[in-house]
Amino acid sequence: MDKNGKQKTLINRPKTEAKPPFPMRINKYLAWKQYSTRRGADELIQKKHVFINGRLAVLGDKVLQGDTVDVHYRGKPKTYVYFAYNKPIGTITHSPQRGEKDIKHSVALKDVFPLGRLDKNSHGLIILTNDGRITDKLLNPDYEHEKEYLVKTKEKLRGSFKQKMEAGVNIEGYQTKPCKVQILNENTFKIKLTEGKKHQIRRMCSALFQEVADLKRTKILNIELGNLTSNSFRPIEGSELEIFLKTLGF
């Protein structure tokens, strides 16, 4: 609803990507219009806040081209928050097993979740937020958003390492996308990726006969880890946040 208490019509919300085919499931439509995640849309539908052409929507409904979708929402709009967090080695980002410690037990922040993953033996930048709208925009490799890592290897880097990494590496049948590598010294390099397969950098190095000794994520888009100490966080705000959200299409 707007400030005058009128219903909010989503059909005129700006789009940031090519128009998908119709008919489209209502939860996918609301996510496409950047109103919520698909799960959040399901919750709105279950709470009877969503209407298609004036009819109360139900789970599984499909939207046709030209339909008018309205959300009757009462209460204050959700306030989104964003934090840069320096994940320590040993902390789990998702689904901790017995005896393991995850991020929500490590930081004094409520109702936020990590965007993406960083494996247990790696450390560095993770973005924490309550904004589910940006999850796919940031993590989907189709958008090719850069993430930067600082990597140390146990052995000296081979002379052909940079060339082979940048060209893409075959890891168990998958050819990684081209990336950018900067050699800092005989066993340290920076790498910029636009995708994030499971343990990708470690697997790429292993395929080129290099073993990773330390892996730290230092940057996601324009958000930098900087001098943030281990297990500390800081708010992302001001122009830094504006650039971040604009890059994601918000």
Considering the chains and any ligands shown, give keywords for the structure:
250 residues, disordered N terminus, 9-stranded mixed β-sheet, 4-stranded antiparallel β-sheet
Account of the 3D structure:
- This protein has 250 residues and is of the alpha+beta class.
- 18% of the residues lie in helices and 28% in strands.
- The chain has six helices and 19 strands.
- It has helices at residues 26-32, 38-46, 135-139, 161-167, 200-207, 238-247, and strands at residues 8-9, 24-25, 50-52, 55-56, 62-63, 69-71, 82-87, 91-92, 101-102, 113-115, 123-129, 147-153, 170-171, 174-175, 180-185, 188-193, 212-220, 223-224, 233-235.
- The strands form five sheets. Strands 7, 10, 11, 12, 15, 16, 17, 18 and 19 form a nine-stranded mixed β-sheet that branches.
- Helix 1 (26-32) crosses helix 2 (38-46).
- The radius of gyration is 21 Å and the shape is elongated.
- The relative contact order is 0.15.
- Mean pLDDT is 87; it is low at 1-6 and 9-17.
Please render the helix and strand layout as text.
Layout: E1 8-9, E2 24-25, H1 26-32, H2 38-46, E3 50-52, E4 55-56, E5 62-63, E6 69-71, E7 82-87, E8 91-92, E9 101-102, E10 113-115, E11 123-129, H3 135-139, E12 147-153, H4 161-167, E13 170-171, E14 174-175, E15 180-185, E16 188-193, H5 200-207, E17 212-220, E18 223-224, E19 233-235, H6 238-247
Parallel strand pairs: 8-9, 11-17
Antiparallel strand pairs: 1-6, 2-5, 3-4, 3-6, 7-11, 7-19, 10-11, 12-16, 12-17, 13-14, 15-16, 17-18
Helix pairs in contact: 1-2
